[in-house]
């Protein structure tokens, strides 16, 4: 899978995105993504292979009251038939290189579950595992 091209989606290349993209079992409409990427602290990245989006990642910068910002990777997805071929790893590599180059964020973080072995394998290449418990509830 050497020919996968990675890009940050912006106003100039958003036309490469289909009208609806399935991420994490949910549909994201292109028109909503257009609004999302207007904010320069919101990021969408895609892996493209033979004109098809085979991988997608989105995240955002989070400003702390001390003025330091962290980058949160909210979602990483490789479409099932292309999983376990190194694309997720390359996508993370591309994104982290991109983010580091910007020098806006002092730290990045990403959440997953212990049972998601593939995700853990990919993330441990780039980050240290922290022992924390996440609590959440719909508002
Ligand atoms: C998680 C995900 C993004 C990873 O991307 P990917 O392209 O499949 O991952 P890669 O091929 O780059 O790497 C997978 C790694 O897991 C390893 N792996 C896969 N199955 C494994 C298993 N059963 N036991 C141990 N290691 C395993 C592979 O060997 C590889 O590690 P290596 O590069 O050291 O050999 C992708 O699988 C995906 O989209 N999964 C569904 C959505 C998801 O879970 N997203 C993350 C939510 S936080």
Description:
- It is globular and about 40 Å long.
- With 139 residues, the protein is α+β, with helices and mostly antiparallel strands.
- The mean pLDDT is 95.
- The strands form two sheets. Strands 1-4-5-6-7 form a five-stranded mixed sheet, with helices on both faces.
- It has three helices and seven strands, in the order βββαβββαβα.
- It binds coenzyme A.
- Coenzyme A binds next to strand 6, helix 2 and helix 3.
The CATH architecture name reads 3-Layer(aba) Sandwich
The major pleated sheet works out as:
5 strands, mixed
* Terminus-to-terminus distance: 41 Å
Mean pLDDT: 95
Assign the CATH class: Alpha Beta
Low-confidence stretches: none
The count of domains is: 1
Fraction of residues in β-strands: 25-35%
Gyration radius, in Å: 15 Å
Looking at the structure, what is the overall shape?
Answer: globular
Would you list the SSEs in sequence order as H and E? EEEHEEEHEH
CATH superfamily: Gcn5-related N-acetyltransferase (GNAT)
Arrangement of strands in the largest sheet? 1-4-5-6-7
Task: List the total number of helices.
Answer: 3
Helix content: 10-25%
Structural class of the helix and strand makeup?
A: alpha+beta
CATH topology: Aminopeptidase
Total beta strands: 7
Could you give a short description of this structure?
The chain is an alpha+beta fold and 139 residues long.
Task: Please render the helix and strand layout as text.
Layout: E1 5-8, E2 20-23, E3 26-29, H1 30-38, E4 42-49, E5 52-63, E6 69-78, H2 87-102, E7 107-110, H3 117-123
Parallel strand pairs: 6-7
Antiparallel strand pairs: 1-4, 2-3, 4-5, 5-6
The structure holds coenzyme A.
């Amino acid at each position: 899978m050497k020919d996968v091209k990675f890009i940050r989606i912006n106003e100039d290349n958003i036309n490469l995105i289909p009208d609806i993209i399935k991420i994490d079992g949910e549909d994201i409409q292109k028109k909503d993504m257009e609004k999302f990427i207007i904010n320069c602290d919101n990021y969408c990245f895609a892996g493209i292979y033979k004109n098809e989006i085979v991988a997608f990642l989105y995240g955002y910068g989070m400003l702390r009251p001390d003025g330091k910002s962290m980058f949160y990777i909210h979602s990483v997805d490789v479409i099932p038939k292309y999983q376990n071929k190194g694309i997720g790893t390359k996508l993370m590599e591309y994104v982290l290189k991109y983010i580091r180059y910007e020098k806006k964020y002092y730290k990045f973080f990403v959440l997953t579950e212990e049972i998601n072995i593939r995700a853990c394998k990919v993330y441990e290449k780039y980050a240290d595992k922290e022992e924390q418990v996440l609590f959440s509830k719909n508002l």
